Each structure stands twice: as structure tokens, then as C-alpha cells.
């Protein structure tokens, strides 16, 4: 029997966490049981639907413009990232075409509902405010806004929405006092909470409590949030005085209170909603008081034994499961992996038995390939979902580190050009990662297979280049984490059924914190030929290291040849730069492409690829600049010089002539090609699409 890799302290932490989770379940069940015996229903005003829109008609954009393209991308990013934390901001573009966007969901809204609400908002804001450069739209569960001007960290407290319950308070003075204190307390707590959100309730009568909610957009500072909530609360007397419920919503803050619970998730010690009392003439005060006591006794008689039974059961289950898991090697790996503060990792755990059934016990017939840390198998889950299971080597200590890195990073990333992690498993010495299955496999198998008579047509190759660039841009700048991949290569690019690229294998990825942009390591890991010189020689890495790998990959996609397949020259970038300098770059194009390719687009990709493999990191473009160049007809950038790891194969005189040809070829040729896309009135049309 294998003993756990760490001592009693780690096992105690695991059991303690397990017991705490069971106790939380017990508390929740007690609340449910209490509700079963005391809850009575009454009508509630449903406000899930559309509430407001605000379109600035003084600022407009034209259909098909760069601003519209940036807006579409902004909305896509907001929808894709809204459910991660319930809040997301982004900006896309430059100068007059920049778009700033923000989305926020209610703090008690589930991730699924948050995504659905954000998707609806992004769709309807385009319909409601078509051609406007500044707009906002709100619902009871989420809000979304965009503008050509930066509005982050500033607030607008004007309540564009002012709604009130149709019922009036039986004791207006008491209700005003109690609701006012509740709003004041909730505003203070919400402002000091990092999520800028708080729920709560207070007593009102023997039959009713007042429930309240306060929220600000998370970009606001604590003092700014509190000011916004205080200002919006100041409008209550003029719109909702005397009514038993109010909802006030501005662009930056949200306030609501009712005499019934409208919360979307339970809170601790939440009192159950109770029906309105009968007429006083039909109910004597003493009888009412006695009735409350009688009901309380019944509840206690039922709830207390049930709570004790559940506690005993929880403790017993915790002990049994702890004993059972202690027999497995790696028992403490799962708790350690989940201790980054994200309990959502629990949902990613998949049992070993399920994965054995899915892959026919890791049958060779199901094997898709083998990477540096182990084989990958195709599988099918009981719901018919196809998966790819990465089985890390049992004997590799490095493999466990890679698994933890992938789970903690990839689970927090969501982008169409990144492979999606579905789960992981750490049982019986197995270390398994479960990904979405991508039917077209890895790029290298298609790109470098010379047996394919036609290969990938240029349109698909260019689409793959752009997709990889967008995936890297997300990792470097647009995700909540700043990540350097460190192992970008053709075999780590997977293709879905429509040949869309997805970056995979984050085992070597490094996370940058805050404003950090560079890192250093004594452990050089990766694939030679794709490594940037500063990383291969000195262990220094940054986002520009990924840019170097991207440049090599771009030239492989253009030529259809591996970087390691060149003999006369030591690497592909030397060969490519030599032809670029001689004005013969198009001779390197994969012959399987025939003549079905746009000349300016191929030359543009050569230019970008050579810029990315420059010796000095500062001379390489960022991925945002790469994406912009890929979506432009012209490149306003420097002429690439000799790349890193360049092997000279000519005399100095020839080199000077080549550089002269290079300057002419790199600048003039692309401008001439761009003229083919000019409009009839000789005004140059230049498209710049940052995404």
C-alpha cells in the first residue's frame, strides 16, 4: 500500500475541509427544511426582462467601419468573459476607433445565467443602438455598456430606472426607518466588499421582513462606490416613498429592496418569506403570538433531530472517505491543487473509473498520439461527449507540476483559440487531463505531411495564423491573467472541425503577476528551434519569447516545412531572411499551394514572421501589433534585419546588395500591392483590425 506523499498535517487539512463542506451542506438543508414548514407564497413583481437602454445619438459610426469591427470584437470578449467573475472590462482599437466595454452581472447570479444575460445584452444593444458610438443597456440581472471614450473607474449615479412595488406600507414611518437603515448598511458593506456587492435583510413586522441588495460596477473604488449608492438612494423619496419596494438602477450602481426575498442564492440565516397577515378584526394579538410559538416549537422538534442526524452522517462519511482516499497514492495532490482559493476546481474532478471506461482502459486503438509528458487518448463519456485524455507519465515528478499548472491556468481561460479543459484526475498514481476532442488533430500532422497532394489551401493557412495570434494576444493582454506559453509550436496547435486553431499544452506556461512583464529561470524547458535566444541562452522569458516562437511557426505555415528540415542553413528563419533580402521570398512558398494565393497577404506574413524572430526582444512586435498588421493591407513597420541564430552564407558585398534590395522590397513592394486595393478616387483604404 502506498502512503500519502505528505504527513499527517496535510491529511488533517483534507479531512477538515471535507467536514466544513458537509457542515455547510447541513446548514443549507436546515434552512430548506425550515422553509418547507414556514414558507407561504405571495405575488412578486418579475423584473428579469429588459429595463433600460441609453443610446447617444450624437456620436455615430458608419456600417462596415473599423469602429464597428472593434465594437463587434469588444462585445464578443465581454460575453465570453462575463461569467468568469461576473464582471469584465476590455478596450480594443486605437485613437478614434478605440472601443471601451464593460459588462456586470448581479453578484448572486449563477455563471450560466450571467453568460446568458450578457449574450442577450450584447445582441440587443446592437439592435437598440445601431450605429451609435456610445450606448448602455440594462436588465434586472446584468448591464452592459460601451463607449469611444474611456469611462472605467468613473461613475454615473443618475437612476435611469426608478421602479416601485404597487403595495403601500401599512406603517410608512416604520418602513421608511427600517428600509433606510438597511440601505445605508448594505451600501457601506457593498462598497467595502471587493465584489462591490452585498445582500441583507432586516425585520419590519411580525409577518414581513425587508430584503435589500446594493451593487456597484467593480471598477469603482470604495469611496466612489459608496458615493454612487448614496446618491442613488437619495432619489427614493421622490419616486418610491410609502411603497414597500423600490428598484433604482444607474449605469454604475444598483439598489433594490422588497418585502419578499428576491435573492438568487441563499444567504446565512435568511428568514423565509411570509404571506400578508389576515385582517386585524379576524386575528387577536394573543392568538397570533401563541400561534408563532406553536409553529416555532414544531419547527424545532423537526429541525434539531434532523440537523444532529445529518452532522453525525457527515462526520461518519468524512472519516470513511478520508480512510479510503488515504490508501491511494497522491491523496494530497488534489487538496493542494485546489488550495488556490477557487472551489470551482471541484467541479473539474473526474473519476478514474469513468476515464477508463471512456478510453477502453487506455487502449492502444484509442491512442491519438504521444507528447513530451505522455500519450493522449480519445474517449467518449456516457453523455456521448467526445474527449481527449492526456495521460502524464507516472514516473515523472515534472509531470505532476505540469498538470497542476495546466489545471490552475487553463481552467480560468476562455477563448475560442485556446483548447478547453473539461477536467482532471489524480487517482492511483494516475495524472490525467481531460480536454475537448478536436477531430482534425494537431497542425503538424496536416502541415508537414508531404503525402497530401494539396495540403492546406492559403485561405485556411492565413486563418490559422490569425487565430494563433489572437489566442496569444488573449494570453498576453486580454485575459485576467498575463501568461507566457513558452512552448508554442505546430504540434501544440490543435484544429477543430472547421480548422480553427486552438493553442494547447500549457504545462510550461508561466503566470505574470500585476505589472510583471519579464521572468527568469534556471530550468530551460521547451523545444529548440522555437526558443527565443534570450531564453535558450540565459533563461530569460517574456511575451516577446512567445512572439519569437510565433514567427518561426508563421514561416513553417507559409513554407510547409519544419524548422529542423533545412540542412544548408541551420534554421528556417535564416533561409527565409536570405530569400527576403534577395527579393525571392515567394520561392519559399509551399508548392502544394499552386497559384491560389494573394501575393500581398503572403508577403505580409513573411514580413511579420521575420519581425518576430529578431535577435533583440525590443525589436519584435507585441501580439497586439501582430494582430493589427495581419488585419491591415499595409504594414507601417521597420524593415526586418538579420534574425536570431542567423547563419551567414554570402560575402559582405553580396550582403550589402541584399540589404538594399530588402529595403526596396520590404517597403515599396507592399505599398504597390496595397494600391491594388485602393478605391476609385485614389484615396488609400487601410484596414486596421486589432482583433
From TrEMBL:
It is found in: Membrane. Residues 362-634 form the Protein kinase domain. GO terms for biological process: immune response; response to stress; signal transduction. The chain crosses the membrane at residues 18-37, 298-323. SMART domains: S_TKc. Its main location: membrane. It catalyses: L-seryl-[protein] + ATP = O-phospho-L-seryl-[protein] + ADP + H(+); L-threonyl-[protein] + ATP = O-phospho-L-threonyl-[protein] + ADP + H(+). GO terms for cellular component: plasma membrane. Keywords: ATP-binding, Glycoprotein, Kinase, Membrane, Nucleotide-binding, Phosphoprotein, Receptor, Repeat, Serine/threonine-protein kinase, Signal, Transferase, Transmembrane, Transmembrane helix. It is a single-pass membrane protein. InterPro entries: GNK2, GNK2_sf, Kinase-like_dom_sf, Prot_kinase_dom, Ser-Thr/Tyr_kinase_cat_dom, Ser/Thr_kinase_AS. The keyword Secreted does not apply. One of its GO terms (molecular function) is protein serine/threonine kinase activity. Residues 49-151, 157-262 form the Gnk2-homologous domain. PROSITE patterns: GNK2, PROTEIN_KINASE_DOM, PROTEIN_KINASE_ST. This is Cysteine-rich receptor-like protein kinase 10. The lineage of its organism: Eukaryota, Viridiplantae, Streptophyta, Embryophyta, Tracheophyta.
Amino acid at each position: 500500500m502506498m502512503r500519502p506523499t505528505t504527513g499527517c498535517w496535510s491529511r488533517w487539512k483534507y479531512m477538515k475541509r471535507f467536514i466544513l463542506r458537509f457542515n455547510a451542506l447541513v446548514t443549507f438543508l436546515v434552512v430548506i427544511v425550515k422553509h418547507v414548514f414556514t414558507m407561504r407564497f405571495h405575488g412578486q413583481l418579475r423584473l428579469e426582462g429588459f429595463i433600460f437602454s441609453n443610446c447617444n445619438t450624437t456620436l455615430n459610426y458608419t456600417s462596415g467601419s473599423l469602429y464597428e469591427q472593434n465594437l463587434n470584437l469588444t462585445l464578443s470578449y465581454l460575453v465570453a468573459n462575463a461569467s468568469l467573475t461576473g464582471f469584465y472590462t476590455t478596450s480594443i482599437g486605437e485613437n478614434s476607433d478605440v472601443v471601451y466595454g464593460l459588462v456586470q452581472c448581479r453578484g448572486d447570479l449563477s455563471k450560466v445565467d450571467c453568460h446568458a444575460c450578457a449574450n442577450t445584452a450584447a445582441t440587443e444593444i446592437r439592435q437598440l443602438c445601431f450605429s451609435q458610438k456610445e450606448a448602455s443597456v440594462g436588465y434586472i440581472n446584468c448591464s452592459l455598456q460601451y463607449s469611444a471614450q474611456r469611462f472605467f473607474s468613473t461613475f454615473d449615479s443618475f437612476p435611469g430606472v426608478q421602479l416601485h412595488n404597487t403595495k403601500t406600507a401599512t406603517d410608512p414611518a416604520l418602513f421608511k426607518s427600517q428600509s433606510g437603515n438597511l440601505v445605508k448598511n448594505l451600501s457601506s458593506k457593498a462598497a467595502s466588499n471587493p465584489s462591490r456587492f452585498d445582500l441583507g435583510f432586516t425585520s419590519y413586522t411580525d409577518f414581513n421582513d425587508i430584503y435589500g441588495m446594493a451593487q456597484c460596477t467593480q471598477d469603482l473604488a470604495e469611496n466612489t462606490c459608496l458615493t454612487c449608492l448614496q446618491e442613488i438612494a437619495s432619489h427614493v423619496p421622490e419616486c418610491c416613498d410609502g411603497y414597500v419596494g423600490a428598484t433604482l438602477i444607474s449605469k454604475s450602481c444598483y439598489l433594490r429592496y422588497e418585502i419578499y426575498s428576491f435573492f438568487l442564492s441563499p444567504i446565512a440565516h435568511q428568514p423565509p418569506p411570509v404571506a400578508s397577515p389576515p385582517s386585524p378584526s379576524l386575528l387577536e394579538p394573543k392568538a397570533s403570538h401563541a400561534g408563532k410559538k406553536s409553529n416555532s416549537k414544531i419547527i424545532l422538534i423537526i429541525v434539531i433531530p434532523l440537523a444532529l442526524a445529518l452532522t453525525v452522517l457527515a462526520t461518519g462519511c468524512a472519516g470513511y472517505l478520508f480512510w479510503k482516499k488515504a490508501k491511494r497514492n497522491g491523496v494530497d495532490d488534489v487538496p493542494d491543487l485546489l488550495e488556490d482559493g477557487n472551489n470551482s476546481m471541484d467541479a473539474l474532478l473526474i473519476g478514474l473509473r469513468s476515464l477508463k471506461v471512456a478510453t477502453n482502459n487506455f487502449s492502444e486503438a484509442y491512442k491519438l498520439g504521444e507528447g513530451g509528458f505522455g500519450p493522449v487518448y480519445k474517449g467518449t463519456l456516457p453523455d456521448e461527449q467526445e474527449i481527449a485524455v492526456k495521460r502524464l507519465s507516472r514516473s515523472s515528478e515534472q509531470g505532476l507540476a505540469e498538470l497542476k499548472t495546466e489545471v490552475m491556468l487553463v481552467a480560468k481561460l476562455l477563448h475560442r483559440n485556446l483548447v478547453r479543459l473539461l477536467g482532471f484526475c489524480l487517482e492511483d498514481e494516475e495524472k490525467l487531463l481531460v480536454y475537448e476532442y478536436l477531430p482534425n488533430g494537431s497542425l503538424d500532422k496536416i502541415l508537414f505531411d508531404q503525402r497530401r497532394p494539396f495540403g492546406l489551401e492559403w485561405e485556411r493557412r492565413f486563418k490559422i495564423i490569425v487565430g494563433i495570434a489572437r489566442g496569444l494576444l488573449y494570453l498576453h493582454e486580454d485575459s485576467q491573467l498575463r501568461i507566457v506559453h513558452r512552448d508554442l509550436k505546430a504540434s501544440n496547435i490543435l484544429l477543430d472541425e472547421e480548422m480553427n486553431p486552438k493553442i494547447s499544452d500549457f504545462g510550461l506556461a508561466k503566470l505574470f503577476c500585476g505589472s510583471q512583464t519579464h521572468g527568469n529561470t534556471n530550468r530551460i524547458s521547451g523545444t529548440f528551434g522555437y526558443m527565443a535566444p534570450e531564453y535558450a541562452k540565459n533563461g530569460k522569458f517574456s511575451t516577446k519569447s512567445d512572439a519569437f516562437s510565433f514567427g518561426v511557426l508563421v514561416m513553417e505555415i507559409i513554407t510547409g516545412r519544419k524548422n529542423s528540415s533545412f540542412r544548408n542553413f541551420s534554421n528556417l528563419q535564416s533561409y527565409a531572411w536570405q530569400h527576403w533580402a534577395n527579393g525571392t521570398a515567394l520561392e519559399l512558398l509551399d508548392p502544394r499551394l499552386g497559384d491560389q494565393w494573394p501575393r500581398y497577404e503572403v508577403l505580409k506574413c513573411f514580413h511579420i514572421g521575420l519581425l518576430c524572430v529578431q535577435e533583440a526582444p525590443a525589436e519584435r512586435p507585441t501580439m497586439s501589433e501582430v494582430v493589427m498588421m495581419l488585419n491591415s493591407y499595409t504594414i507601417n513597420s521597420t524593415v526586418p534585419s538579420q534574425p536570431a541564430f542567423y547563419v551567414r552564407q554570402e560575402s559582405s558585398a553580396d550582403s550589402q546588395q541584399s540589404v538594399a534590395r530588402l529595403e526596396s522590397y520590404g517597403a515599396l513592394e507592399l505599398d504597390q500591392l496595397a494600391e491594388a486595393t485602393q478605391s476609385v478616387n485614389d484615396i488609400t483604404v487601410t484596414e486596421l483590425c486589432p482583433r
